[in-house]
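Handout, section 4.2: multi-component inputs.
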Amino acid sequence: MHPLDEAIAMQPVAPGVYAANTHPGYANAVGPFGGITAAQLLNAALLHDERLGEPVSQTVHFAAPIADGPFRIEARPVRTNRSTQHWLINALQGDKLVAMATAVFAIRRQTWSGTDAKFPDAPSPESVAAMEWDKRPEFTHRYDLRYIDDSLPKTFTEPERDNGASQLWVRDVPERPLDFPALASICDVFFPRVMIRRQRWLPIGTVTLTSYFHADSHMLGRVGNRHLLGVARAQAYRDGFFDQSAEVWSPEGELLATSHQLVYFKG
Amino acid sequence: MHPLDEAIAMQPVAPGVYAANTHPGYANAVGPFGGITAAQLLNAALLHDERLGEPVSQTVHFAAPIADGPFRIEARPVRTNRSTQHWLINALQGDKLVAMATAVFAIRRQTWSGTDAKFPDAPSPESVAAMEWDKRPEFTHRYDLRYIDDSLPKTFTEPERDNGASQLWVRDVPERPLDFPALASICDVFFPRVMIRRQRWLPIGTVTLTSYFHADSHMLGRVGNRHLLGVARAQAYRDGFFDQSAEVWSPEGELLATSHQLVYFKG
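Output:
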């Protein structure tokens, strides 16, 4: 069984209520990698009997550190319309909320389509070296991360850069066909921009993450287990918080997801 | 009393529960302008006795059309940490959820700060004509909207453009000192990108809006009642949904907010 499938597995204990667990393979420096939490909360809605269509957006609040071990997920469609459905999904340990997500699911209809974002002219994944870094948190070993530029800090003593942008190829390790939980998780795989901009190690923590899924399951199926191209940048860093935005592209240049997050930082 | 202050006024009826009303001055084609709903939901948290610090993020779900008239807002801090607080804020008509918001409030600490986004080189607000358009929905008259480029459709029969980007100067009408509710509302003031890209009138509706507030109340106070520079663009339009992202700048080039939304469209 793939570690991602182990991580997102959950036992229904009542309608919309699931027993879930943190997964040691997706551990971050403190608590689980935020992407896997996003995947777990999304999966609770995907597994729900009352689900309508497929996810088009998800917002996750990382309310508190999740302790290693079991937690409870409560997923509830709070409003169901003809073609859209709004969700509230809570994760609790004991009686304490540790994470909260909202989501929109929808039945898509074929329409005129287009893309304003530009697919970058990037070298092939095979021509780019995989990330090597001594102090990698465990979850990074669940991803093949191939940073295209030299933006990633190596010694954390390089001179400050004039922006926090970067590009990488990424896929699950081991390889796994792309689906919505995998995509939701990859939307959070981007290195914290403040550390790229400043080339310094700083304590950080994402407080909230919003992802828009432009792909449907057919498009994800066509991507299969190939590398995705990720582009990430920051907008503003100010007084303890910065935002970063990311694009996730198929190898053919289809924009699968755009994602935004607000991150706490110190120093 | 300023129409925005009338619109965000609400009567506490129980702890965290408020009686609110739609405001005819902020009506959109169907139901209220989404920005005013965002401002109302944010204000419910701002007025709450248990509020910690100031807003740093807000996500709004436009779950269903809000009928003109009264509605109930229920605001609840779902997790309060030492310096951050997570909120769930529901708007109901009868027993039906019509809108839902989540938010993060925080006590900011002074840190290293910087901006990666680029402040555009724009002509002064005085040198740009205010938007004129016959079929403007009522809420647009509550804003001074000065589109800098010629991107806005005039006859809805112009040739398709190669992207949906635009820039404008904007402030409240009448002038009003900037605060968080006003900023939350302005984050939704940007014309739907699909209509700029295609130069056609299309039925649209925002399903979810996420705004990150990079400014604190002191910075908003320094902006006062002057024009803000807005920059908006789309990333992808596909099968009934597109996303658009915006930056809201002070006249001096401080990035006050970044905002993202997913919009339903037809045709």
